[in-house]
Model the fold of this input.
Amino acid sequence: MPDDRPADEAEPPAPKTEDGGSSLRAGVDLRRVGINPDFWYPVAVARKVRKGRTLAAVFAGERIALFRGESGTVHALEDRCAHRQVPLSMGVVEGETLRCCYHAWAYRGNGRISQIPYLSKETGRPPRGVRAYPVREAYGLVFVFPGDPGKAADTPFPELPALGSAGHRTMTFSRLVRCHYSFMHENLLDMNHQFLHRRILGRIRPELLEHRSTPVSVEARYLFTHTGGKRNRGAGFLAAEGIGGKDSADVMTIRTEYPYQTLELVPEDARAPSFSLWAAYVPKDAEQRTSHAYGLLTIAKPPVPGALHLAWPVIRRFTERVFAQDRMAVEAEQKAWEEQGEDWNHEVFPLILDVRKLLRVNGVPLRPVPRRTESVSPPHPPATSAAPVDERRPADPDAPARP
Amino acid sequence: MPDDRPADEAEPPAPKTEDGGSSLRAGVDLRRVGINPDFWYPVAVARKVRKGRTLAAVFAGERIALFRGESGTVHALEDRCAHRQVPLSMGVVEGETLRCCYHAWAYRGNGRISQIPYLSKETGRPPRGVRAYPVREAYGLVFVFPGDPGKAADTPFPELPALGSAGHRTMTFSRLVRCHYSFMHENLLDMNHQFLHRRILGRIRPELLEHRSTPVSVEARYLFTHTGGKRNRGAGFLAAEGIGGKDSADVMTIRTEYPYQTLELVPEDARAPSFSLWAAYVPKDAEQRTSHAYGLLTIAKPPVPGALHLAWPVIRRFTERVFAQDRMAVEAEQKAWEEQGEDWNHEVFPLILDVRKLLRVNGVPLRPVPRRTESVSPPHPPATSAAPVDERRPADPDAPARP
Amino acid sequence: MPDDRPADEAEPPAPKTEDGGSSLRAGVDLRRVGINPDFWYPVAVARKVRKGRTLAAVFAGERIALFRGESGTVHALEDRCAHRQVPLSMGVVEGETLRCCYHAWAYRGNGRISQIPYLSKETGRPPRGVRAYPVREAYGLVFVFPGDPGKAADTPFPELPALGSAGHRTMTFSRLVRCHYSFMHENLLDMNHQFLHRRILGRIRPELLEHRSTPVSVEARYLFTHTGGKRNRGAGFLAAEGIGGKDSADVMTIRTEYPYQTLELVPEDARAPSFSLWAAYVPKDAEQRTSHAYGLLTIAKPPVPGALHLAWPVIRRFTERVFAQDRMAVEAEQKAWEEQGEDWNHEVFPLILDVRKLLRVNGVPLRPVPRRTESVSPPHPPATSAAPVDERRPADPDAPARP
Done:
């Protein structure tokens, strides 16, 4: 920005005008928009859910008890016993059931209670069970469908064909980031932030070649030119420098396709990507101010056998360092948002305005508090007129409650 | 619960209907019911209040300064200096008075100020003092009466005759538990939770023989049958296994008599209990989401001289392990309650419904914030028309306050 | 206070009557009165702001990025980038400008943006910059003027002539204290708190000789008589005992002159102070419940050359110990205030009532949340009718945002 540029005396825009005032969620602070639960979200690295064991997972404040039965199948239940609300993830796996650690109530994978050891005619009628989530295990991750279970079957599951290919190898990332998921999308799409990585990547001049937006996606293509400074070996390898020793212009394509994000790097003179990244940012707390970032980095094997294997630790160290810098920035943004009490971002880069709108329009209102969910699923049975357990008990509070 | 049991389609009962809607506190979440302060509550282990020293204690958010005068008597004052609110427990004991560490104001055991070193005619009139609590020292504990001091003399003090007996020895417990006191009562009364202790006690089949409820008590008798698994040596000793080497059915009697709780174990073929436990759960914070559990475990000495002495460390380790498991469960319940924002418990065991009603009916509303208590007690003198100190000072805020 | 003193049955005064009900801020809890920002406040020790580096400072919740340009001049900006709110104190100094670490926006010392590297015709119009604070470096501290910048030039800067004198040496203090600044003023002015320091100072009998109040100042003169007990060597040195070996009555003058505080000790038979202290308590958080205490302790050099140099570590240790005790007391007061929810102080010492009034009358209302400040300063340009950046973008939220 040259110093003689005409001064802009205007106040920065309020977020409510960003979408033109007509959107469903215009006026809503982007950092208060909940992620849409009607998608498949990773909630755990698959090998952490061991056979016959539980794992406590979470989606946007909803606690989820994962357990892998003796058959090898992973199940996902609401993480509370219907009796006294103790987390089922503290329980014990028996075959394909999960038994609460406290009074030993047992649950099936569909959330129905299969046994209460001490239940007799004298005792009250028990609840039916807890909510169960549709689960799928793929790409080394456990995915659940936290939204309407009726939509699970028809909702596209992420397709990552390179992951199964013999010519590629995949590195898995699983990291907590203390920010709203939207900051992550903006971070990756706005490649003008290479200054942040100057100590690792050297001086990079990113040039936006084009960007395209649809109601559910924003895609940007950049030309990356290395203009000086020392570049980390891991970066070099990922830019396929490891093969030809070249050092220059690569094309980077970043795409948010709600709710996921991808990145592909095609080196100069190459046709296929030297690597690609698939990422999902899964809100952890109910206010969605913390996210769990899951990443799958798929790297094309170079012609030299074993070269990728040897470079693996270098690549991991490189990506961890880059991620640590990005995390520092997005967590600083989240902290500033919390202190300022609202979104003061003043964006000047059009495609970031696009992705902000996309995330707002495709999101959902934040739920203020966890709802009570008592019935099993799917499907949700309608409530009948049967009297609840406690209502059938004597009602005189001053008399002994039971003779 | 057999799988073919007719499905219960009903929603679980809302807490407000549990007492039939006519109780004083029907509709109040049990976890928001304050403990009744008009009882004697332990607030410290007596030997921790050393002669000439202070100890900071607390009852439901009310900070209490205990101090033991040179005579050996323990006094209990509101833990704030009437002057600048610095805790008196930071002060210095002089004879039977307590001197604030800051400006050296001195207090008697009845809360009245006995000296302000620098008070002159020019200075304003000082306050009279702070609140004093009725105190009793017994069973190795310091008890205070946090409620209406006029009721202290007529309120029964816990009677534990076995504690003085030559045939018994007592183990004292004092532990913080991060839960509402009600969870502790439910935990002990519902002996179906032996699954929680399976690694320590082996497989236990508890059978409820009978239970009796009155407006102020709930008592349950269980037959405990050991059906397999290795049993901890401490457990064996407490069940008097140490005497006859037997291994089986004991009768366990648990009783909540508001606000205390007791447990007695009578081994098979025995007439007297092999051990008994007296417990009080004293709320710590004003919201009563944390309790201090005081326990007195009284164990009958076996015929072999010295056997109990030898077994003492084993018994303590055993009880600590059992307590750690119970604490894990009740703290998980409290945490779930805080996340859910209300009591979702769905109880099916009638005597637990009874104790829930008992705790609700005998409790009091939670006080939202600490009240200001300025006068000494007992008795509380009525306020007169004498003008407060500062009102007699010059009132012109713009003039120099003092010539 | 003799025991037969007539009982005061009255309730202690409510804070709202302390100023007679006619003051601007009568009725306001003193601990909720904000410090007046229209003064010069130290926010950092100068040598911590190194050339070419930044330092994150704060005034009452306003984050301030200090940076020292290559010229050696210190600049103070609002600590947020106008773009994405990342703290500028995480940025990089280039000459006399500060570049944000994230997307490399650069700012001048007056808060104006000097460059946005990737700005093109296609991008939106950027904001002008962020707020800049008037800065002065003096006495080894960096001062800013956090209030109305138009008042900075005419507001007296603290004058400390002894600091430049060859006959004195100055010790700098910089410590966080977790309390409202008012507790610090009351602590130092009420010298009846010597009981707090009995282990360091021995038994001191403070006698108030006189006190004088104006609308902006309270001054008290005490005669300090040492009546027994061992006195710390550092205390002795400061009381000039190191020179003559005397041990007794000194005159201590303490003065609050809004918003600063000073203390001077003139030993018996001496004419000039043996030491003097200048202090400022700078609120850290927006609620002003934490303060940063900056102190300059200026000590007259004794006739023996090098004696002060040798005593320096002893004096520092002594002052740190005294300060630690004061901090314990004032932090206990703040904690009590937070638990009690309001100011229960019951003051009996007239000059403390004066300083309480002074702090209330000269203070300002607390700002509930940080305000958005977007324009540069000084001066604040009026907003014009130019449309904000984002409003000029296409407004149809359902259409692709950009073709």
Remarks:
- The CA atoms of residues 73 and 96 of chain C lie 8 Å apart.
- The domain at 161-365 of chain C is CATH 3.90.380.10 (Naphthalene 1,2-dioxygenase Alpha Subunit; Chain A, domain 1).
- Chain C has a mean pLDDT of 84.
